[in-house]
Amino acid sequence: MDPFSHLEAPIWSEKPPAELLRLAYTYCEELTRREAGNFYHSFKYLPEEKRQAMCAVYAFCRRADDIADGDWSDRFPGSLGEMDPEAKAYREALEQHQTAETVLDEEAYLNKITQLFFFRKKLSSCYNEAWSTDPVFLALKDTVQRFTIPRLVFDDLISGMEDDLYQNRYRTFDDLYVYCYRVASVVGLMCIEIYGYEDPMARKYAESWGIFMQLTNVLRDVGEDIHRDRVYLPSEELEANGLDPSEFVDGRVILNTSWEPYCHHYAKRARTYLEEARQLLPLLPRETRYSPAAMIAFYDKILKQIERSQGDVFTQRISLSKPQKISLAAAVYLRHRFLPRFLDPVWGALARLGVLPSV
User: Fold this and answer.
1) Which terminus of the chain, N or C, has less C-beta within 10 A?
2) Other beta carbons within 10 Å of 323
3) Hey, is 351 helix, strand or coil?
């Protein structure tokens, strides 16, 4: 029994017409194309049904992220907003499991936690008999039914967004790993259900895929995150290397002789997860392999650029130019759609020389 099912909300009790479902998928695809150029490029060569499903998943993740960042504010007909009894009970139960007070001001906190409560409620419609009128959840429900995606991965992602309301520092790498799992690995676990796989090891490698990408994001965004009063790099490691987060504010940390070696150490560890992520690719059907391979190649290149810039993620935002994206995408597409397997050693040798991407 869904504990949120009795709350009045804009829902249908029967499956809506096919035309509305088509429009919902179109909404998600347009959102993905507009907001996530890199990701959309990796989706667009998938078979249509899988491409649409990936866009629905992206739209869900984007909406959750926007709520956490304060860039999305939904309205909920039939409810009392933050004073809704269920929303209050949900908030109180969540607070009991937290070890710290919220890091936000009260107004922002109440707004975000209420938004996330109703966001979970909309997710419930994907796993019960109701159909949400929200195009994101209309498309997502059809997607989870077609590809049997378990609810837990979606709930874990929302939990990661909730953690952000209470935690803006991470003491150990294990703490950071949990955060990366909840906001990125679960996305990889959603994706492989759409890509298709038979070997259960695919789930382990999908987890590592997400960890690698989020670790890269964390390092790239250090300069931006400090201005949001967030430091994701483990404080235990920063202290051990004589690095102070106050040095991130104006970027003077790049003058600290310990910063560049720390960045190289951090990147080396991230690549241990990259190596596992690569092992996911042979376990996927050839027709879907390009999608994760392109994302891995893009992030591998970004991590290399961070290292080449000696860890300067403060005076510039590390990103790929359009020619870099095109050349990487073309090479990865060629390999995973057309290259015979017996040529893999040749590709590997050229990749080690830096001529070709290693995925």
Assistant:
1) N
2) 8
3) helix
